[in-house]
């Protein structure tokens, strides 16, 4: 595992110790973009928090694994097309995700390096999803 992947995994582990972490993400996302709220009504908050953890695991696992990234991107592009997700929303979700991580990890452990690693990893996954042909 590269040191970048280890940094992502370690910071994610710290963030997940904070019970508020998934809710922080949704609060930040809906505060910045209230119009997204109705998209997240298919599942209970508990199920969504599980999906959120799945989302982050997908990002961490795909670093250093181009084939996995491609396979995940294809699956996400397919499901997300049916949710009515538009390309500009990826930036909004990325911002809320980084802000939630920053707050949950805390200033002691959230370094400039961690912020850069998460920003790059999220951007790589988002770009791979957007590069998939429409379903
Ligand atoms: C790289 C970015 C993203 C990743 C890796 C990702 C990953 C996932 C995963 C793994 C799931 C659960 C399984 C599935 O439904 O496929 C999910 C669900 C979902 N995602 Fe994403 N996603 C991303 C971006 C976005 C964006 C930009 C939006 C726009 C608002 C979005 C909205 C949703 C919704 C609405 C659900 C379903 C929630 C529900 O059914 O209650 N996602 N995502």
CATH first level: which class?
Mainly Alpha
For this structure, the CATH topology is: Globin-like
Oligomer type? single chain
Distance between the termini: 33 Å
Structural class: mainly alpha
Structural Rg: 14 Å
What overall form do the CA principal axes indicate?
globular
H and E order: HHHHHH
CATH-scheme architecture: Orthogonal Bundle
Percent range of helical residues? over 70%
State the helix count.
6
**Major beta sheet summary:** none
The CATH superfamily turns out to be: Globins
Strand tally: 0
The percent range for strand residues is under 5%
Low-confidence stretches: none
Q: What small molecules are bound in this structure? A: protoporphyrin IX containing FE
Count of distinct structural domains: 1
Question: pLDDT average, as an integer?
Answer: 93
Commentary on this structure:
- The protein is mostly helical and 135 residues long.
- The protein contains 6 helices and no strands.
- The chain has helices at residues 3-16, 21-32, 45-62, 66-82, 89-105, 112-131.
- The longest helix has 20 residues, at 112-131.
- The mean pLDDT is 93.
- Bound molecules: protoporphyrin IX containing FE.
- Residues 36, 39-40, 42-43, 48, 51, 54-55, 58-59, 76, 79-80, 83, 85, 89-90, 93, 125-126, 129 line the site of protoporphyrin IX containing FE.
The gist of it:
The chain is mostly helical and 135 residues long. The chain has six helices and no strands. It has helices at residues 3-16, 21-32, 45-62, 66-82, 89-105, 112-131.
């Amino acid at each position: 595992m590269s040191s970048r992947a280890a940094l992502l995994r370690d910071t994610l582990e710290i963030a997940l110790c904070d019970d508020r972490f998934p809710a922080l993400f949704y609060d930040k996302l809906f505060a910045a973009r209230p119009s997204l709220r109705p998209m997240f009504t298919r599942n209970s908050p508990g199920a969504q928090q599980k999906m959120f953890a799945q989302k982050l695991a997908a990002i961490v696992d795909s670093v250093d694994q181009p084939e996995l990234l491609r396979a995940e991107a294809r699956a996400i592009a397919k499901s997300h097309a049916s949710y009515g997700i538009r390309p500009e929303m990826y930036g909004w979700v990325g911002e809320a995700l980084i802000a939630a991580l920053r707050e949950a990890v805390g200033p002691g452990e959230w370094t400039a390096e961690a912020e850069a690693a998460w920003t790059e990893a999220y951007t790589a996954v988002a770009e791979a999803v957007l590069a998939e042909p429409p379903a």
